[in-house]
Amino acid sequence: MESGADARNDRRTAEEKAIDDWLPVTSSRNAKWWYSAFHNATAMVGAGVLSLPYALSQLGWYHFSFNPSLLWALESQY
């Protein structure tokens, strides 16, 4: 049973309490900084890989393969 002060301070609805009880987010998690770095990197790589089919569909085979080669050649000069 909740004490009187806790009951007054806790103004969440029954649905919000049920969701909070279901969520696995607790203070006992043991995440490290490299877990976050890995997940951020995979998210960025995933977005890049998913954008390739769209770029290919908009540019076509010739421009899709020619433009990166041209940019690489120009950048390698400096």
Automatic annotation (TrEMBL):
Gene Ontology process terms (BP): amino acid transport
Main location: membrane
Compartments, as annotated in UniProt: Membrane
Chain segments annotated as transmembrane: 33-56
Pfam families: Aa_trans (PF01490)
Stretches assigned to the Amino acid transporter transmembrane domain: 30-65
GO cellular component, as recorded: membrane
Keyword annotations from UniProtKB, A to Z: Amino-acid transport, Membrane, Transmembrane, Transmembrane helix, Transport
Highest taxon, organism lineage: Eukaryota
Name of this chain's protein: Amino acid transporter transmembrane domain-containing protein
Organism, as annotated: Lactuca virosa
